[in-house]
Automatic annotation (TrEMBL):
SMART domains: P4Hc. InterPro entries: Oxoglu/Fe-dep_dioxygenase_dom, P4HA-like, Pro_4_hyd_alph, Pro_4_hyd_alph_FE2OG_OXY, TPR-like_helical_dom_sf. This is 2OG-Fe(II) oxygenase. It comes from the Bacteria. Residues 215-319 form the Fe2OG dioxygenase domain. Keywords: Dioxygenase, Endoplasmic reticulum, Glycoprotein, Iron, Metal-binding, Oxidoreductase, Vitamin C. Its cofactor is L-ascorbate. The keyword Glycoprotein applies. Gene3D superfamilies: q2cbj1_9rhob like domain (2.60.120.620), Tetratricopeptide repeat domain (1.25.40.10). Pfam families: 2OG-FeII_Oxy_3 (PF13640).
Length: 323
C-alpha cells in the first residue's frame, strides 16, 4: 500500500475491520506530532468511536493540535470551551481563543458577527426583548425580529453542509428515527460545532424563554422544500424523565409561500417572517404533555423555508449523553 498518510491508512484499516491497528496508527502518529492524526484522534475521542468517549482527553489533544497550527482544531476548541465540554464552560476564555486565530477567515467572520451583538462579558444578551402574546391556550408568544438577517443566514449556512432527512424521537426507545410525519431536511448543531455565534444565539433563546442555556437541546435547523411539512405533533415526550417543557422556533427566512405554524387546539396560524421567533409551552405543571400544544408545520407551497428549533428541557440537558 502506498504511503498516503497516517489518517488515510487508519481509515483503510477501520473500513476493513482492523480497529485496533487503526487506533495504533493514529495514536503513534499523533504522539509523533502529526497534526492531522492528532485532530482525527480528538474527533474519535469526542465521537466515542472507535475509541471510548473522553471529552477531557479530547480537549488536551486539541490544544496540542492548535499549537501545531491546525485551524479546524482551533475552531473546535473554541466551541468545546464555550459549551463546557470536557471542562468548565468559559465564554471569556473561548472568546480569547477565537481572537487568537482572528487571521482565519472563518474566525474573522464569527468575530465580526459577535461585535454586532449586544452581549455582556459572558456572552449573554444585555437586553431581553418583550414578546407579544398570540394565544393564552395554548400559550404562544412571538418575538418579532429576535434574530438579525445576518444571524439567520449564519445559522442556516452553519447547518447546510450536514443536512440530512429529518428525524423524530421514537417514544418507545428514545432514539432518533425517520418518520413520514416529518418530511424536511434537518441538521443539529452539536457542542463540537456550537461556535460563539451559535452559543450567543442559544443564550438569547434561553433569555426569552426564562430558562438556563444548559436546559436547551442543541439547536436544530430544518429546511423545507415545496411539498415538505411537519404534520401535527407534540414536542413533549411521553414519560420523559427530563421533559421538553418549552419550544422556541425561529424563522430564518421569508419570501416563500405556505409553511405556516398551525396550533390545532385553537386553529392559530403563525405566518413565518424572517428573524421572528415564537415561544410556546409543551408540558403541564406536573411535567406531563400539554395536548393543547399540538402544532404542525404546514406544507411549503413555493420556495424554501428555513427554521431553527431549540427544545428546552425541565432540567439541564447533556448533549453528549442524551439518555
Amino acid at each position: 500500500m502506498n504511503d498516503t498518510g497516517s489518517v488515510a491508512r487508519a481509515n483503510v484499516l477501520l473500513a476493513s475491520g482492523h480497529t485496533a491497528q487503526a487506533i495504533e496508527t493514529i495514536e503513534t502518529a499523533a504522539a509523533a506530532g502529526d497534526p492531522d492524526a492528532s485532530f482525527t484522534l480528538a474527533v474519535w475521542l469526542l465521537a466515542g468511536n472507535p475509541l471510548p468517549r473522553d471529552l477531557a482527553r479530547a480537549r488536551i489533544v486539541l490544544r496540542r493540535c492548535v499549537e501545531m497550527g491546525h485551524a479546524d482544531a482551533a475552531l473546535m476548541e473554541v466551541a468545546l470551551v464555550a459549551t463546557g465540554s470536557g471542562g468548565p464552560s468559559d465564554w471569556r476564555a473561548a472568546h480569547g481563543l477565537l481572537e487568537a486565530v482572528a487571521g482565519d477567515p472563518v474566525a474573522a467572520n464569527q468575530l465580526a458577527l459577535l461585535a454586532l451583538m449586544d452581549l455582556d462579558e459572558d456572552g449573554r444578551p444585555t437586553r431581553v426583548p418583550v414578546g407579544e402574546r398570540l394565544s393564552e391556550s395554548p400559550d404562544v408568544v412571538r418575538f418579532p425580529g429576535l434574530l438579525s438577517p445576518a444571524e439567520c443566514q449564519y445559522v442556516a449556512m452553519t447547518a447546510q453542509d450536514v443536512l440530512e432527512p429529518a428525524v423524530v424521537i421514537d417514544p418507545r426507545t428514545g432514539k432518533m428515527v425517520s418518520h413520514p410525519i416529518r418530511t424536511s431536511l434537518g441538521a443539529v448543531i452539536g457542542p463540537a460545532r456550537e461556535n460563539l455565534v451559535v452559543r450567543a444565539i442559544n443564550a438569547r433563546l434561553a433569555a426569552v424563554s426564562n430558562t438556563a442555556i444548559e436546559q436547551g437541546e442543541p439547536l436544530a435547523v430544518l429546511r423545507y422544500a415545496p411539498g415538505q411539512q411537519y404534520r401535527a405533533h407534540l414536542d413533549s415526550i411521553d414519560n420523559a424523565p427530563n421533559q421538553r417543557i418549552k419550544t422556541v422556533l425561529v424563522y430564518l427566512n421569508e419570501g416563500f409561500r405556505g409553511g405556516e405554524t398551525r396550533f390545532t387546539a385553537n386553529g392559530l396560524n403563525v405566518s413565518p417572517r424572517g428573524g421572528d421567533a415564537i415561544l410556546f409551552s409543551n408540558a403541564l405543571a406536573d411535567g406531563s404533555p400539554d395536548r393543547r400544544s399540538e402544532h404542525a408545520g404546514l406544507p411549503v407551497i413555493q420556495g424554501v423555508k428555513w427554521l431553527a428549533t431549540r427544545w428546552i428541557r425541565q432540567r439541564p440537558y447533556n448533549p453528549w449523553n442524551p439518555g
